[in-house]
């Protein structure tokens, strides 16, 4: 996040976005307790720009998901999604409840040579941020040579799970601001800062079963279910096998011991089977011949390396399509989420995408747990979307 303070008062907060343009999240940022609304220093500079990272600790993340589960709401995939989703919330009260935290790591003093000179290195600027009332990452360390740096990296490679948030590496910065300025930026990143990533953490566990999920294109994705393990800060008991090729390569039998890791620190995946530990006469898990949702015969699509259900009326495909249709990356219809889609299908109020646009109050009131306010909100979202189609002439091509 980028925060701006005018005469010591928080005036705006934005997400980093693409580096050029971010989203305005000022109202929600004000609900994060570790972001001071007013700086705790006397005579602050007229303008102050602060960069930092908003996050949700692993403990808070588990509490949020436990609460959502108890309410029958969809779970967040990981703390990062939960945090980004919370900051885009329309209701700032929700942000307060999500227990977001913020670490400041950088400060700029635009057009202010006095402050620039007074705080002429990164370390002094971190101290300044602390004085202002910000939290900084307490594991930050001032390091004098490469040997110390190696020690620091090796230490956190082993100890990173003891921190209450997921860390995928460390960031090293040149301390002296003058040297930072000499080094400057490339098109994409500063030359005075670099990230050193940790190797992905791997752990062994035991296979219980495989499930086969039907995606919106009809493609079947094998997913491994295993004994729960703690991996890179979160509890994991399922991991994707991606596709049929990976499934064949891994050759999983019941009760196999497997190695799992998080790809990009987010999505758990099965790395390999430890064949030396395979029990005698164990049974190989087979890829299904028929769709687990509709029972139609599955077909191999050689060009895509996938196995697909090609039944256009397959319920799993339909659910996948509808969920995608209303999602942020597609039509982004306000008030219409995956959960409501499931309810609508269950109540047989919709069968396809065009049915979404014939939804009305009389139909929606039949749904359980659907209040007056949510219904009006949803209908408003649909109306808004229809209007935008007509204005923008959006053309949709089925994928
Ligand atoms: Zn099917």
The CATH topology assignment of the largest domain is: D-amino Acid Aminotransferase, Chain A, domain 1
Largest sheet: 5 strands, antiparallel
Strand order of the largest sheet: 9-8-7-10-11
Query: How many angstroms does the end-to-end distance come to?
Result: 35 Å
Per CATH, which architecture of the largest domain? 2-Layer Sandwich
Rg computed from alpha carbons, rounded to a whole number of angstroms? 25 Å
List cofactors, ions and other ligands.
zinc ion
Give the helix level as a range of percent: 25-40%
Total helices: the number is 14
Could you state the CATH homologous superfamily of the largest domain?
DNA ligase/mRNA capping enzyme
Q: What is the number of independent domains?
A: 3
**pLDDT below 50 for ≥5 consecutive residues: which ranges?**
none
Helices and strands: which structural class?
alpha+beta
- Using DSSP, what is the number of strands? 13
- The CATH first-level class of the largest domain comes to Alpha Beta
- The succession of helices and strands, N to C, reads EEHEHHHEHHHEHEEEEHEEEEHHHHH
Q: Average pLDDT across residues?
A: 89
Q: What general form does the structure show?
A: globular
Instruction: Report strand %.
Output: 15-25%
């Amino acid at each position: 996040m980028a925060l701006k303070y005018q005469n010591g008062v928080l005036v705006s907060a934005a997400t980093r976005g693409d580096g050029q343009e971010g989203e305005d999240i000022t109202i929600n940022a004000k609900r994060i307790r570790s972001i001071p609304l007013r700086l705790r220093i006397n005579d602050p500079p007229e303008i102050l720009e602060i960069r930092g990272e908003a996050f949700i600790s692993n403990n808070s993340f588990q509490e949020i998901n436990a609460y959502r589960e108890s309410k029958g709401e969809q779970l967040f995939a990981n703390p990062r999604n939960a945090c980004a989703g919370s900051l885009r919330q329309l209701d700032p009260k929700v942000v307060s409840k999500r227990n977001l935290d913020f670490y400041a790591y950088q400060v700029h003093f635009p057009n202010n040579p006095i402050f620039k000179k007074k705080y002429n290195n990164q370390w002094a600027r971190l101290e300044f941020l602390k004085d202002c009332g910000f939290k900084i990452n307490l594991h930050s360390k001032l390091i004098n040579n490469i040997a110390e740096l190696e020690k620091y990296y090796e230490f956190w490679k082993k100890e990173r799970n003891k921190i209450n948030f997921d860390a995928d590496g460390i960031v090293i910065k040149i301390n002296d601001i003058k040297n930072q300025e000499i080094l400057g930026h490339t098109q994409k990143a500063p030359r005075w800062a670099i990230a050193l990533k940790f190797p992905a953490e791997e752990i062994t566990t035991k296979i219980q079963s495989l499930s086969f999920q039907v995606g919106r294109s009809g493609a079947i994705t094998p997913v491994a279910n295993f004994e729960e393990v703690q991996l890179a800060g979160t509890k994991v008991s399922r991991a994707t096998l991606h596709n049929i090729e990976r499934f064949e390569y891994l050759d999983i039998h019941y009760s196999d011991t497997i190695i799992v890791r998080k790809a990009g620190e987010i999505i758990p995946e099965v790395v390999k089977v430890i064949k030396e530990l395979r029990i005698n006469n164990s049974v190989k898990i087979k890829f299904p011949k028929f769709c687990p949702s509709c029972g139609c015969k599955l077909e191999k699509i050689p060009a895509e390396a996938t196995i697909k259900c090609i039944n256009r009326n397959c319920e799993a495909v339909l659910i996948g399509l509808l969920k995608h249709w209303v999602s942020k990356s597609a039509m982004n219809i306000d008030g219409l989420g995956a959960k409501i889609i499931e309810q609508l299908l269950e109540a047989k109020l919709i069968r396809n995408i065009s049915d979404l646009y014939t939804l009305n109050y009389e139909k929606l009131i039949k749904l359980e747990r659907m209040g007056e306010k949510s219904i009006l909100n949803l209908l408003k979202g649909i109306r808004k979307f229809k209007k935008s189609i007509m204005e923008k002439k959006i053309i949709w091509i089925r994928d």
